Amino acid sequence: MTAITSNYESLSNQADKAAENYLGSAIHLLNKHFGEGYAKENPVLVGQLVYAMATDFQSMALAKTMTDLSDKLAYILAAN
């Protein structure tokens, strides 16, 4: 597992970039599926989609971390 060595300022900057990425993706997806300008007319839906994207990433990152930890613990236990 890789240690997080970033400082809080760096982590904050990464969070800003992630939010901007989610926002751009949400706008693009909504306009792609429902027509140009749909996202602008439905800002609440944009916000909900951004929230869903961020929550999904958080859940998948946590699941991966837990799987990695579980694998390492199994390895340690098998060695003893």
Explain this structure.
- The chain has 80 residues and is mainly alpha-helical.
- The protein has one domain (9-79).
- 85% of the residues lie in helices and 0% in strands.
- The protein is built from three helices and no strands.
- The protein has helices at residues 8-34, 38-41, 43-79.
- Helix 1 (8-34) packs across helix 3 (43-79).
- The longest helix is centred in the last third of the chain and has 37 residues, at 43-79.
- It is elongated and about 60 Å long.
- The two termini are 21 Å apart.
Tell me briefly what this model is.
With 80 residues, the chain is mostly helical.
- Percent strand: under 5%
Rg, nearest Å? 18 Å
What shape does the CA trace take? Answer: elongated
Distance between the termini: 21 Å
Major sheet characteristics: none
Q: Structural class, from helix and strand content?
A: mainly alpha
Overall tally of domains: 1
What order do the SSEs take from the amino end to the carboxyl end, as H and E? HHH
Q: What portion of residues is helical?
A: over 70%
| Low-pLDDT runs | none
Number of helices: 3
Estimate the mean pLDDT confidence.
Answer: 91
